[in-house]
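To assess whether the prediction recovers the assembly geometry, we first specified each molecular entity separately, as shown.
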Amino acid sequence: MGRIAEFIFRRRGGKGWHWTDIVTWVWLIGGLIIMFGPAVWLAFSSFKTPQALAEFPPSLLPYVTQTVQVEGYDKPLQLYDATLPDGSTAELAQVRRIGVIAQLVDPKAPGEIVKVNIKDLKPVQSIGFATENYTEPFVHFDFLRYLWNSVFVTTMATLITLVVNSMAAFALSKYKFRGQSAVMLVILATLMVPLGVIMVPLFSIINALGLFNNLWGVILPTVATPTGVFLLRQYMLTIPDELIDAARMDKASEWLIYWRVVLPLAAPALAVLAIFSVVWRWNDFLWPLIVLSRSSLYTLQVGLNVYAGQLNVQWQFILAMTVVTMIPVVVVFVFLQRFITTGIAGAGLK
Amino acid sequence: MARITLDKVEKSFGNVSVIKQVDLDINDGELMVFVGPSGCGKSTLLRLIAGLDQPTEGTIAIDGKTVNKVPAADRGLAMVFQSYALYPHMSVRQNLAFGLENARTPKAEIESRIVDAARMLEIEPYLDRRPGQLSGGQRQRVAIGRAIVRRPVAFLLDEPLSNLDAELRVSTRAEIAALHTRIKSTMIYVTHDQTEAMTLADRIVVLRAGRVEQVGTPLELFNGPANAFVAGFIGSPRMSFLAGTVTAVTGERAQARIGSGGTLEFVTTDVPVKPGDAISIGVRPQQLALGEGEGSLAAAVALVEHLGAETIVHAVAGEERLMAVLQGQLKIKPGDTVGFALAQAPLHIFDADGQRLNAPVEG
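The predicted structure of the complete assembly is given in tokenized form:
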């Protein structure tokens, strides 16, 4: 433990502070806040009540204003620390608010109404987790159906992506043919075409194929990715040609060479692509939104959209469900980050 | 068992011609070594025979059947690659079995062949390991084992020892020789190391720039190199060449003057010479002795290497460099002038184009 601390707090300046120590700490802590802050805010805010979310200035932790049941009132009343006109303070329950004046009662003596300016009120708060943000969508929102759709799309798209891309990469890395580099160039060039540009023609194709309102309409257009082909090709270039010659001498057909020799050896790159593909497909929003209009087919990301109405956005549910949908991606990253870093380094890809 | 015949085989990659008009006849059961400097096309030639590349011109036949159109897998050949090319994700056993499985050999047969090969190559303890867990020498055996289990008509070995350390190379070389004696298959062995070629080969093919320079048994090449290239390539240390000029010719006998020094007499057989022709006289360092008087060459010693049993002397005579491997420990220092008994040594005489003039010498 002492050695870890020594390692972490080691400074270039020794006992003192070199300016690079300061820059490093500022940079690292700043980076931590910028990268990790939104995720922390999301996680905490997903436990906030709608009132707490609307509060300004916003708080990081989910606070709940305490309420109290007062005789003569049907609903529980919110508790405030009020500074009374005579300078004394008391814990009072708010009955109603008219303009900037709040009408309060003492919970112990509910007969008398006290009028206080709202700037003299401070809500009595405690940390409380609004777990109903999570439980309620499971009851009202068709979470399991959306989850199933998302899992189906992600799994199928990833499997097909791996097969299709590795085949293309195999051909582009291990066969010599006329126009090889031209084909590679065209594939890479499609990297520069954003979805927005091809959205309309792509939709026409999907529609003509009868895949509108069909999960396959979400899956199929995404399976051939230039990034995947490039990543796998770069990796397969490092597999020695002699191995493939050896397999040929061993009477292996081209399919067997691909399946029994090249694919197993490209496993690290395949793992990277699988991770990427899972994250991409899981987080996909725009394309599924276009193709799927029946709510029973919605993926999670599209399903979340039902909480964003024209006039009313139910942030507490959106935040809670966002946390839920993030979990698989986070888990994938935590457990497979070793593959991701080696794969990215190996493919020279960002 | 196979006899492999190459007839006017040519290979070019685009405009670059790497194999030019190669005719070869490799006999059944022969261990033929292709040797030459790097880039001479020896590996390409092997790949053409294997069927991994297609010749641009000419025919390749195995046992009289033209195989130009037969895919590599169906030629009945097995290849051992320079990098061994073992499948890293398979165990040794799976590596050995892969080719047999693809050929749909029955399971029991595969197992018995693997056991046989493993016993022969002493790799039984490693059968369930991955290639990455083996040493270089063990990988080499597995690579050979993978070829053996296929029961090929011929083995093609592409610089199989180049990744081994010097000591292992010598012992593995002996094992390959023993293997060849035992299984009596045709073997084609590619190397750039002339020592390997000399020790292993039944016959050697010397290649340069895609052309066959000479084919013959090791001693034929050593005693009668057809040209200066073969003479320089075969034998270690390298043959010394001295430039000279023919001074007189009487019948088949000719006289020549070497540089500024001595006069030599030699017999021309293959190519006639006339006075004034430039020639090159080759002498092997091991066959050169010290000596004074008639037919000797005085040279200044530039460097002396004492190896204990022998002394290697690098000397300069005029413009010419000369090397001699002398027996025993001699008290020669750099700067000394010594005489070499050139006329008494077996000489290889080449004309200006490097073609041999005299008959092969006796060892």
